[in-house]
Amino acid sequence: MKKRLLVWFIIFLIVFGLAVYIDYTAITASSKPLETLNKFESYIVPRFGLDVKGGVRFVLEAVDTPEVKVTPEAMQTAISVIQKRVNALGISEAIVVQEKGANWKRIDVELPGWKDPEKAKELIGQTALLQFKTEDGTVVLTGAHIKSATLEFSKDPATLGRPVIAFQLDAEGTKIFADVTQKNIGKTISIYLDNKLLMAPVVKSAITEGQGVIEGNFTKEEAANYAALLRSGALPVKLNFIQEEVVGPSLGSYTIRMAVIGGIVAFIVIALYMIIFYGYLGLLSALSLVFYVSLELAVLFLIHATLSLPAIGGAILSLGMAVDINVIVFERMKEELKLGKTLKSIINAGFANALRTVIDSNLTVLVGAAILFYFGTTVIKGFAVTTTIGILSGFISGVFVTRLLVELFLPQTSLKKPWMWGI
Amino acid sequence: MSFRDRIANWDILGHTKLWFSISTTIILIGLIAMGVNWVKFGSPLNLGIDFRGGSVITLACQNTPDSQKVRDIVASVGYKDAIVQEAQGNKVIIKINATSVSTDDITKIVNEVDKLYKVNKDATQITSIAPVIGSELMRNGAIALLLALLFVLFYISIRFEFKIAAATVLALFHDIIVTLGMLALFRIEINAPFIGAFLAIITYSVEDTVVVMDRIREKLKFKLRESFRELVNKSITEVWVRSMNTSITTLFSSLALVIFAGTALRDFSMTFFFGLFSGTYSSIYIASPLLVLFRGETLKEEISKKESVVKVLEEPKESALEGPSQEAVTSEVNEEAKASKPKSKKKRKTSKKRK
Asked: How far apart are the CA of B252 and the nearest CA of chain A, in angstroms?
C-alpha cells in the first residue's frame, strides 16, 4: 500500500519538476532575443497574443465571385502566397493561419511589432494578377510564370532613372513569351495588373530570353511593392478584410505586468483563505495549487497556445475554480470526521463523492469549450483552449495530486487535532 | 450557536417565496434597465464593436486632447455619430459603431489628431470589425450557449433525472437573465470575451447545482422517513458552506482581475462576478425549491415504492428473490431493502478505484 503511494509520489515529483523546468525555461526565454534561443527554448517560448505584444492583425475572408469559387485548395494557395508577401515585409514572427471549424474561409494574419497597417493591407490584400494580353484581348501569359521580379531603374533614354519592375520568367514562360512576341511583332501586347492597364508597348522583335521590364509611372515604393507581389504570386481567390486591429507595443507590456500581479495576488489570497478555512488540509491544497499553476503553464507553452488577454484572464479565473475540487472534498471529509470514522474511510468518502461531482460539472465545461472552439473567432478559440487546459490540469491536481498529498502527509494523529482540519 | 449550526438549522425552503421575490426583483430591475437603455440608446445592452461592427481608435497624445475638437475632426471625415471620450493619460477614444470604416478614413482621423495633439504611435490602438462579422459572432455565441444548455439538460437527465435537470437548467436561465440585467444596469460594454464569461457562468452554476443535487440523491437512497421537503432543506444546509467557499475562492481571482487588469479584462471579470453571485444563489435558493415544486413535498413516488417493497415482503414466495433482507425485522424492512442496493453499488465503485 505504502509502496504504491511512494511510486505515485515519485511520478508526481518528476512531472512537477519537468513542469517547473519548462515554465522556467519558457519565461526566461521570453525576455531573450529570438536569435539567441536554442531549439528547445524557441519551441516553448510563450506565444503572446497581439493584444499583449503589440502589432497589426487582420482577418481576411475569401468570398465566392462569379468566376472563382472558394475551395480548400485555393485557401492553401492563398495562405502560402500571403506568407510569402508577409516575409517580403521582413517580419520574422509573422503568423498566417487559416481559421479552423466553421470559419475555414478566413485567414488570420498577425504582424507583431508592425505599425503601418496601410502598407501591410496593400501588400496582403491585393490579388496581384499580372496578365499579358494581345490586341484581341486574349490572355497569353500570367504572373504565374514569373520566377523573379525586382525593382530597377529605367535605362531607356526616354524614361531614364524612373523606377521599373524587371522580371525574369521561368522556362515554360520564356518559351510562351518567345512564341507570343514572335507572332505579334509590330502589334501591341498590353500588361495588366488586377485588370488595370500598366503599359501597352509595341513589340519590336521576339523576346527569347524571358526577361522584360514593366513601366507604369510607379513611384520607387510602388515599384518595390509590386515586385514583391509578383514574386510571391497572385491570390487565387478574392479576399476581403473583415477585421483589423492595431495595438501599440507599449500597451500590452503594461497590461501583462498588471495581469501577472493580479494572478499572484489571487494565488496568495486563495491560498490564505484555504489555510484559514481548512488548516493543514488547506496548506496541502495550496501545494497542489502550485502544481496546478506550473502544469497548466507548461502545457500551454508546449502546445503553443496563444496567450491573448482574455486567455490570460481565463487562466487567472481558473485559479479560483481549481481549488473548488478541494473545497468539495475537504467539506465532505469534515462531515465524515464528525461521524467518527477512520482516517482511511474519511479520505475515501471525501474523494469518491467529489470525483462524481467534479466529473459532472467539468464535462459540461469541456463540451461548452468544444462548442466555443468550433463556432468562435480566434480570440474565443484561445479562451476555449486555455479553459480546457485549465479544467484538465485542475482535475489532475485536485483529484489525484491533492489525494496523494493527503494520503501521504495527513497523519493518523490528525484525527485528534482539529486545527489540521480547520475546525 | 455557532455560524455553522445556525446554517444547519436554517429553514431555507420555508422562505421560498422570499427567495423567489428577491430574484424576481433583481430580474425586474435588469429588465427595466434594458427598457431604459432601449429608449435612451436604441439597444437594451451596451454591445461593443465585436458584436455590432465598427471601429475603436484609442490615441495617446502628448498634449491634452479636447474631445469636442476631436469630435469635429471625426465628423468632418464623415462619421457624425461617433462617440469621442477622453481618458486617463491624455488619451482620446473614438468609437464609430455599426459601420465599416475604411482604412483611409482611419488614417485621416489619426493624422488630423496627430497635427493637433501629437499622437504617440507606440500606444495607439485601433480595432475595426465588419458589421457582418459582428452579427455572425452574436448568432454563433447564442448557438454555442444554447447547445451548452441543451447538453446540461440532457446530461443531468441521464445522471440524475429529468426533473432535476429541468430545475438546473431553469436556474441557469435565471443566472443568464440576472447577469444580462446587471450588464444593462451598469451599461458594461459587451464584447467577444463575454461569450467565454457566460460559458464560465454556466459551468459554475452547474457545478453548484450538481453539488446540491448530488447530496439530495444520496439522501434519497438512505432516508425515507422525512418528507422530500425536509430532505432537500437538510441537503442544502449541509452543502451551504461548501457552495459559499467554492464561490468565494473564485470571487477572489475575479476581484484580483477587476482591480489589477486593464479595462478589457475588467468588464469581462465584472460579468463573471455577477454571474458567479447569481449562480451560487440560484443553486441553493432557486434550483432546490424548484425541485421541491416539481416533485411535490411528500415524496409520493418513494412512498409508493416503499409500500410495494413492504407488499412484496409480505408474500413469502416473491420475497425469496429479494435476498438477504427477508430475515429483517418488519419495522426496519423497508430501510434495509432500500439500503442494500446502493451499498453494494458503492462497494463496486470503490473496488474499481483501487485498481
From this structure: 6
